[in-house]
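Dear colleague,

Following up on Tuesday's group meeting, I ran the structure prediction for the two-component complex that the binding team flagged. I've pasted the input sequences exactly as they went in, so you can double-check that nothing got truncated or mislabelled along the way. The structure tokens for the whole assembly follow below. Feel free to forward this to whoever is handling the docking comparison.

Inputs:
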Amino acid sequence: MSLAKRIIPCLDVDNGRVVKGVNFVGIRDAGDPVEVAKGYNEQGADEITFLDITATSDDRDTILHVVEEVASQVFIPLTVGGGVRELADVRRLLNAGADKISVNSTAVFKPEFIQEASGHFGSQCIVVAIDAKQTHCVDRGDRADRWEIFTHGGRKQTGIDAVEWAKKMSDYGAGEILLTSMDGDGTKAGYDLSLTKAVSDAVSVPVIASGGVGDLTHLVDGVKLGGADAVLAASIFHFGEYTVQQAKEAMRDAGIHVRL
Amino acid sequence: MQIAVVDLGVGNLRSVKQAVTTVADNADVILTSDASQIAQADKVVLPGQGAVGTWFNELKERGLEQAISTALDEKPMLGICVGMQALFDYCEEDGGQQGLSLFNGSVRHFEHFHADRSAEDERLKIPQMGWNSVFQLRDHPLWHGIDDESYFYFVHSYCANSAPDADLGMVYGGADYGHKFIAAVGRDNVFAVQFHPEKSHDNGLKLLKNFTDWNGKA
């Protein structure tokens, strides 16, 4: 036996409420992050990730209350991302009960922030989230596949190569890479496996695949073909299409070691 | 009963306190970096995350070395993660750090043990991050009600290994991550684990519950 591959449901939280809806059996209030987190915990989720999409900084503190509430009732690792700009933000979230903090655009604007944060709090709690889009593709006649980092929800191209960036962030002390394919996100066509594989091969830290899951075979492929250490999904779990338990059984049946 | 969770200002202290509070009936669980409170407490939890060098610096800066040393002699005590690693002779992290030498052995980076893996072996990422099953090598009150090979949540890059001449009776649990390492050690009134019981769902809560019920005798 050794380490199990992880399944991580992801929740978008806006001003303290779960958005994009959650609809599975056993949840009384689909907008309540605590209720939803408890539901996923009971289904056997290995971790839960919260992405705070609250637009205004005035309302930022609401996520702290959410984390406090969830952490007092759900005893599995919690990752929180969104709006993390300073070391003080990291400290506040950790103090509220988060185990890992996910940093996205701040890392792009200020890469040394990752060195500072991992130096202060330890690599184990600093996750670098990478949003990547394919810019060059062999199948379209380019000489090599290439993905670039995008910020602002995929609107701003940075010119930074995603694989090189992942390596740099891992060298700077990131303990884990949360890799989202902007091309795949929302398509239900599956993870970008070439991207996942390229990043996973390039770094020594764990990689979480994200973006595009439509069915359970995509989770299997993320691990087997993409080389991911963990797989993240949102909508397939939110709408009750599949439970985390079913996802784990599918992975087990495909020969992947999971915690069941 | 009062349980002190030692606050060295690093790691997920709130989670540890929260989890212990949840399982401890009628116990007063406090987060403290005050030597006299640690001295007064009935039981002590010694958590830790991040770098071991920082952990020892904080211990020193807060003037807690003596309080911890006394507690290790006297009361039921639970070490978690870096709070377990610190109890060995030596930790390799941060350029090398002398430990508290309650257990004979050293804490070294996983890469030393992965070097001889072949190209066909699955590539193992460092840190080990996630759920791994723990082999219970000896009976202990803290294992009661927990199945052998149950899953616990680990996050670490360094792992503990006993010294060649160490008393292996101290090793209560092991796990395998390309190399078998120490997941749980114990001696008299002290039990310590590499994994995070506070993040290990039902199995972790059960272990913490066992600790709150424990009289400190193995």
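Chain A has one domain: 6-253.

Cheers,
M.
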